[in-house]
Design goal:
Elements: H1 3-32, E1 35-37, H2 39-49, H3 51-72, E2 77-88, E3 94-95, E4 102-103, E5 112-127, H4 131-197, H5 205-239, E6 248-250, H6 265-275, H7 277-298, E7 303-314, E8 332-342, H8 349-416, H9 421-455
Helix pairs in contact: 2-4, 3-4, 4-5, 4-7, 4-9, 5-9, 6-8, 7-8, 8-9
Length: 463
């Protein structure tokens, strides 16, 4: 390689390094740029990672296993028993016909051999008075109850995400509101200071002290909003399954305003009684407990069954003894079929279990009645909360707009010399309170709508 080629190679490498140096910050910034997430994104992430939902899924699998177990009671069951061990070798005895003497061919007592035995029993229930069928039905209702419980848990996860989402947004809006108020106060302080420098009789040093008092209050509010935003951000991150080092931003910057038109409350109550998963869960729970109570009653009655039995055994050192009246436990093979009745009788155990099952059934009935009575009350509460907070948010929004106009007029009058510093402070104070009340009522309104959705069992992803 000559000098010219080496120079070209070095120049190319230098240019490549230069472009890499230029692109590296852009690549780094792109990698570190926080994700922008919507409420739908957050809810979907929470549903995919929620440990509570995974536990609910396992409850469904456990309930299905119980149903499989109960259903298996209708099918035949096979018991197989195999055994082996030592046994004394033996032959049939020989009888001397002349003398009538028995000549034993058993051999020595120490002639020990081995035997093997295999027994099998196939048992098929024929009639059990409801022991099996009631437990199978109870397990089937248990599966449905577990599915309803999972739906209820899903609604709770969505509700919690919405609550944290609203809390984070309201804290962010509170920070901006504190910044607006601080800007007005600083503006007022500059105007007062300018007139003090001009020796104007319209102001005095106490006006600056009042400014400092207002500034301290606004700073405290801003610090509270900042802390609330950090807490809500961390809680929201944990709820949706993001690691602590992950960063994200919300696509929305403000809470939705109270513009949703609500239907009559009676319609919401009707939908709650039809769709609420907790009611479906307790309904299936009642049916399951009723079946278990019937099964406990059936346990007091006999069970009719059929059996197919087979057995084979062999001992090489013992001669087989084939006699209808004498059973040879070491050498045999047979198969039998028979029907039977099994009736377990105790003195209080069975009736105690029956009474306990009936009590649990009555308890579940009371839980169902309690839910039916209180769910309409819950729906009515959240409905009224939404109506009240929606109206309050509109009223406070109008009041905040009026207070902002008051601030503009008070500042203008102060500049013209026809207004006082107190007028500016009163306008700023009223604006801050109205804006704070507006944000609080807006948060309550959105949260009440989310609670209302959950109360009627129709949890959507909409704010």
């Amino acid at each position: 390689m000559n000098f010219k080629d080496a120079a070209k190679g070095s120049l190319s490498s230098l240019i490549l390094c230069f472009f890499i140096a230029l692109l590296s910050p852009a690549i780094s910034n792109a990698a570190e740029k926080p994700r922008v997430l919507t409420l739908d994104d957050l809810i979907q992430m929470a549903l995919e990672t929620s440990p509570k939902l995974r536990m609910a899924e396992q409850d469904i699998l456990a309930a299905k296993s119980e149903y499989k177990e109960a259903k298996g009671g209708e099918l035949p069951q096979i018991d197989i028993l195999g055994s082996t061990g030592p046994t004394q070798d033996a032959r049939f005895p020989t009888v001397n016909l002349k003398t009538g003497q028995i000549m034993s061919n058993d051999g020595s007592t120490w002639d020990i051999g081995i035997f093997g035995d295999l027994d099998a029993f196939l048992t098929q229930p024929i009639y059990t008075f409801g022991k099996i069928s009631n437990r199978k039905d109870a397990a089937r209702y248990g599966v449905e109850a577990s599915k309803a419980a999972r739906t209820a848990q899903r609604n709770k996860v969505v509700l919690e995400v919405k609550r944290l989402y609203f809390a984070y947004l309201i804290a962010e809006q509170g920070r901006h509101a504190a910044g607006d108020a601080s800007g007005y106060i600083n503006d007022a302080a500059n105007r007062i200071q300018r007139l003090l420098d001009l020796k104007s009789p319209n102001v005095n040093s106490s006006d600056l002290y009042r400014v400092q008092a207002y500034q301290g209050e606004v700073k405290a509010f801003a610090a509270k909003a900042e802390s609330g935003a950090r807490v809500a951000y961390a809680a929201l991150k944990a709820e949706v399954g993001l690691p602590q080092e992950a960063q994200f931003q919300l696509k929305a910057k403000e809470l939705p305003e109270g513009t949703t038109k609500l239907a009559p409350v009676e319609l919401y109550i009707q939908r709650a009684l039809s769709n609420r998963p907790e009611l479906k869960e307790v309904k299936n729970g009642v049916a399951a407990k009723e079946k278990l109570a019937k099964a406990a009653q059936a346990d007091l009655y006999p069970t009719i069954f059929a059996v197919v039995a087979a057995s084979v055994a062999g001992a090489p050192g013992r001669q087989e003894f084939d006699n209808t009246y004498i059973y040879d436990q070491f050498n045999h093979s047979y198969a039998d079929f028979f029907a039977g009745v099994n009736w377990h009788v105790d003195f209080g155990i069975g009736t105690g279990k029956r009474d306990k099952a009936r009590a649990e059934y009555q308890k579940m009935l009371n839980e169902r009645d309690y839910a039916r009575r209180n769910i309409p009350v819950e729906v009515e509460k959240y409905y009224e909360d939404a109506v009240e907070a929606g109206k309050a948010s509109k009223d406070y929004q109008e009041a905040a707009v009026g207070a902002r106009r008051w601030i503009v007029a008070a500042f203008s009058n102060f500049d013209l010399g026809i207004g006082t510093a107190r007028d500016m402070f009163d306008a700023i104070d009223r604006y801050g309170k109205n804006q704070g009340n507006y944000l609080e009522s807006l948060y309550k309104y959105n949260l009440a709508l989310a609670n209302l959705d959950c109360a009627i069992g129709e949890m959507t992803t909409k704010p």
